[in-house]
């Protein structure tokens, strides 16, 4: 049996997604279907798959509760078929789709995610998203040592790292100046100790100047990607924490292999992510 699935392909700073509109909330997306859609050889190809579904039709009760403030739920899956709580770049691409299709017409609107309601603002050609509250995963260790984890990358000595929760888990490490960010081998997943219960996304950061960092990322459920929005926010939070500025509200520029993102640390421990979103193709795919 074959199945036809209508899709739109989009990306945010080259973090790419297969969008699957499910406007009456009737489609089941199994992990196998997600992995086939995301496969770059037999499917459309993407770092993730995003089902666009009315919040009121979500299976998860906590998402249905968000239907009071958000019409649409971003049902985000990683390329390997696993669920993720949040995707920062995905929220902008999701917003671009809702606007293009006339499903949202205001310049500011809310979207439902597994990590709660997020507010999106149109900023000219780009989108800014309040990713909501963040927290240090182990604040006591962070305050005491500045770090709470060790990360082995590329068979080398371990680096100290800081875990940041943005609804989804992140582990951020700052590379010493002697290590070339571009030369690190991220074809294998970095090994994080202690092992995070839910797995983690790992961000490698190189400071470039005041409020300016470069980042590479190995994403949970995907592998190395060319950008990660929640990862950029975690990287800015960790870097400002190490610089002792986490109570200030600076704007950070985060350069990723796929482009440039802006991160604003907001009062109340909120963080905003801004950047581009592109919809590049529409079609129908037939999957076995
Ligand atoms: N690329 C995303 C994050 C996607 C989810 C991540 N792989 C996870 O499992 O948490 C972003 O832009 O934030």
TrEMBL record:
Q: What's the top EC group for this one?
A: isomerase
The major lineage groups are:
Bacteria, Bacillati, Actinomycetota, Actinomycetes, Micrococcales
Pathway, per record: Amino-acid biosynthesis; L-lysine biosynthesis via DAP pathway; DL-2,6-diaminopimelate from LL-2,6-diaminopimelate: step 1/1
GO annotation (BP), single:
lysine biosynthetic process via diaminopimelate
What is the documented function of this protein? Catalyzes the stereoinversion of LL-2,6-diaminopimelate (L,L-DAP) to meso-diaminopimelate (meso-DAP), a precursor of L-lysine and an essential component of the bacterial peptidoglycan.
List GO terms (cellular component aspect): cytosol
**Could be important to modulate the pK values of the two catalytic cysteine residues (site feature) positions:** 170, 219
Protein name as it appears in the record: Diaminopimelate epimerase
Which residues are responsible for catalysis? 87, 228
Q: Which family does it belong to?
A: Belongs to the diaminopimelate epimerase family.
**InterPro entries the UniProt entry points to:** DAP_epimerase_AS, DAP_epimerase_DapF
The Enzyme Commission number assigned here is 5.1.1.7
